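Incident log, structure service

09:12 report received: a user says their structure output differs between two submissions of the same chain.
09:20 pulled the input from the user's history:
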Amino acid sequence: MIPGKCENRIIVLLSSYNGEKYIEAQLDSILGQKTDARVDIIVRDDGSTDGTLGILRRYEEEHDNITVIEGSNVGFVRSFFTLMKEAPEADYYALSDQDDKWLPDKLQCAVTALKRAERKFPGMPLLYGSSSYLVRSDMKPLGETQKLIRRMTVYNTLIQNIMRGHTQVFNAGLRKIICGMDIAYDKLYAHDQFLLNIAMIRGRVIFENHSYTLYRQSGDGVLGYGIGPLQWLRKRMERFQKGDGRKIALQMRYIADLEREHMKPEVRRELCRFLECRKNVLSRIGYIVRTRLYRQKRTESFLFRLAYIAGKYND
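09:34 re-ran on a clean worker, output below:
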């Protein structure tokens, strides 16, 4: 049974799938968080066929703050939103991957930043995120994920998934908005980017250029992450070949429709131009020279423009 609400409570939402290799290390790192808040962990297993569920059941028996939900395989995007909607009331919620490792002060730093923002913006839906340390499967360091080098706005986050889900911590106000949505999961590109853009449109976003997560890069990972500019470009080309540009555009259209009443008029106009000018190469060129959309790095913004002209964001 999932315990009821208590003051200063954080619920960690973890979706697992065939994660027996690393999930114990991740659970231990969450249990080892140094925070003055109560930390509860809810794990939804998305139909694992390996030994993951057995490991989870053992942890559930050994720790009174872990709850395991045995679910059918619906994919990680829907699985995370199911967790958000089925979780009980709490002050804050944190998303977790199954194969990372959290540094001991991760949750405390996130909650401190959120509380500071709540004092400044009372009643506002808030989302916190940060960069991450990139590590190999054996935890040897590789570098860090993207840090903010330009101001983060909705014109950036609509086309760049800069705030990875495993760093995201949000307050009850943002969760309430998500729970009130009847989400069309087939129109989402990524659960974390969708959540980021809803927070950008409806509330406030906090991004910290400091890393608290060891983000494991392994062949077992669902998304992976290119290391260095050449690998990034190769990964990006591979994803465009698989239709990622089209999926991002589909999510943008969905956000434009879903958040029409909450979106600033200039943002809505930009999204409409992005979507409507895709019909031929001349209209794409006409749009892209005036677009407000950008990525953090100028070279990546240039590549985005080339990809748009080439029709990589077309339906």
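09:41 both user submissions now match this output. Likely a transient worker issue. Closing.
09:42 reviewer note: The two ends are 44 Å apart (CA to CA). The chain has two domains: 9-217, 228-309.
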